[in-house]
Amino acid sequence: MNHTAHSQFSAEERTTLLEVAVHSIKHGLEQGVPLPVAANDYPAGLREIRACFVTLLLGGDLRGCIGHLEAHLSIVEDVAENAYAAAFRDPRFPPLTSHDRNNLEIHISVLTPAEVIDFESEQELVSKIRPSVDGLILLDGHHRGTFLPSVWESIPDTRNFLSHLKQKAGLPANYWSSTLEVYRYETESFSGAP
Q1: 76 touches 42 (CB < 8 A)
Q2: What distance in Å separates the CA atoms of residue 53 and residue 165, rounded to the nearest whole number?
């Protein structure tokens, strides 16, 4: 997790997941679809049903970030799907080119199951958020947004973090409602270059 030395994945498993991400992007460049993955071909730890995000950086700048908040695939399948989607389906960026692939940095963030944060006021919510540890999911009606814990690196202030998350969800920065829901999760994150 972010705030402990404990790691669920071994160095070998992390390397395998990063290799799957690289191969899925390469497969996407060559075939136009994600790498097909048979979970049963991988060790038990990589067959667990887990949710993840794959973030791509090019020259240190965001180049794509796609993932799932709810676990519905084995982690090895989720990495393959999200690496492809981050490279070719992130609506904020044009599809990745073979030239881009050579300078790419891949970050994988595996999520813990989300848990609800109970609060009666924005002040109480702010006091319960753990900076640099919590990823947050904000929900209100059809508005929804999430920030991975890594976003704390660029928005270290809790109130600003929450305001930016509201805006990402399509709400005003100072929005408040009794129907607002916030969930927290942690991530185990690791990265590499192809």
Answers
A1: yes
A2: 17
Number of other CB atoms surrounding residue 130 within 10 Å: 15
Q: Report the C-alpha gap between 194 and 191 in whole angstroms.
A: 10
Amino acid at 51: A
pLDDT in tens, 159-188: 999 999 999 999 999 999 999 999 999 999
Q: Under a CB-based contact definition with an 8 Å cutoff, are residues 57 and 104 in contact?
A: yes
Say which DSSP state 150 is in: G
Count helices and strands in the chain by DSSP H and E runs: 6, 8
Residues 173, 164: Cα–Cα separation, whole Å: 6
pLDDT tens track for 10-19 = 999 999 999 9
- Reference 29, options 93, 97, 107; nearest CA is 97
User: Could you tell me if residue 144 is left (phi over 0), alpha (psi between -120 and 50 degrees) or otherwise beta?
Assistant: beta
Interstrand relation of 181-185 and 135-140 (parallel, antiparallel or unpaired): antiparallel
Report the C-alpha gap between 118 and 153 in whole angstroms.
25
